[in-house]
Amino acid sequence: KMDAIIICVPTPLRKTKEPDISYILSASEAIARNKRRGQLIILESTTYPGTTEEIILPKLNGNGLEAGKDFFLAFSPERVDPGNPKYKTKDITKIVGGVTPECTELARLLYSQAIKEVIPVSSTRSAEMVKLLENTFRIVNIGLINEIALLCNKLGIDVWEIINAAKTKPFGFMPFYPGPGVGGHCIGIDPLYLSWKARSHGFETRFIDLASEINSYMPHYVVDKIIVILNEHKKSLKGSKILIIGVTYKKDINDIRESPALEIVNSLIEKEALVQCHDPLVSGFEIDGGKKISTVKLTKDTVSSNDLVVIITDHTDIDYKFIVDNAKLVFDTRNALKEFKNSKNIVRL
């Protein structure tokens, strides 16, 4: 019955770090069984270049129906930034690319009803590549600044001061910020789709792979840093009480998918630390082995009774002054405590 169908399904990674497009396949097969003449089908799920033409198009072709004449197929990457109130969907430029010019134009007309600007590109492959470039740009720059943060730590330099000074340059520099790792369903996953596709064409994406390696190392670095901080205060990790602040993969959302906090919490528990977690947007979560963790309220006793408070996700609604005033020690991986530079109980990433 629908005139237009937009496919927005997950595109995760398998344990082998290969693309899992099973949701796209399932959606395509369901549409193929029920499609009719004149329908517009658009894929929005982030995926490797060629998915629309190589996977979806063969499923939809057949029964005498031809793309661009009898039905229309296009790709348009989603560009929503969860938790960012600055940008509304209608204000974010949309990219569209069809398997034929007719498909591209129909997709453009559809999105133009709700979005201010729609930019057509030459093909579905180009549209698919646009999204991967956007996210790869981010992961590579995050990897760079994470490595700079590791170096600054060795050199005794404040990386946050360096970034704030560098960003005063009005051209040639875009600030990115270090952190405990990359999470979510896009940034840490999408570039690996591109790397996989590149390898199938005999090309190694060394730059992308190195950035992913550095970002994947950050949760391990955070745990190692926690051990160092505790040792400097004559405590071992085993048996120490640690309060994790924020478990979602980014601030001001309730999404914990691929959050570095999960790996950090799991590692600390494996090393026999006594871990509590606070997150105003999450009541509980699971770590490896299905172990369930319930979050706790942020009370004076909760903060003061722990040997170390570790800020992993810097939610806006957290009272950071309360934490600084009541914590024995705070390890800040997000520069959430930049206003408390003179507090002697703070260690920054």
Question: Would you mind describing this structure in some detail?
Answer:
- By secondary structure, this protein is an alpha/beta fold.
- It has helices at 22-34, 51-60, 101-112, 124-155, 159-166, 190-200, 206-232, 260-270, 300-304, 320-326; strands at residues 4-7, 40-43, 72-75, 94-98, 118-120, 241-245, 274-278, 284-286, 292-294, 308-311, 330-332, 346-348.
- A five-stranded mixed β-sheet has the order 1-2-3-4-5, sandwiched between helices. It has a five-stranded parallel β-sheet with strand order 7-6-10-11-12, with helices on one face.
- Strand 10, helix 10 (320-326) and strand 11 form a beta-alpha-beta unit.
Detail the topology: elements first, then pairings.
Elements: E1 4-7, H1 22-34, E2 40-43, H2 51-60, E3 72-75, E4 94-98, H3 101-112, E5 118-120, H4 124-155, H5 159-166, H6 190-200, H7 206-232, E6 241-245, H8 260-270, E7 274-278, E8 284-286, E9 292-294, H9 300-304, E10 308-311, H10 320-326, E11 330-332, E12 346-348
Helix pairs in contact: 1-2, 4-6, 4-7, 7-8
CATH superfamily of the largest domain: NAD(P)-binding Rossmann-like Domain
Total of helices: 10
Specify Rg, calculated over alpha carbons.
23 Å
Level-1 CATH class name of the largest domain: Alpha Beta
The name of the CATH topology of the largest domain is Rossmann fold
Estimated structural class? alpha/beta
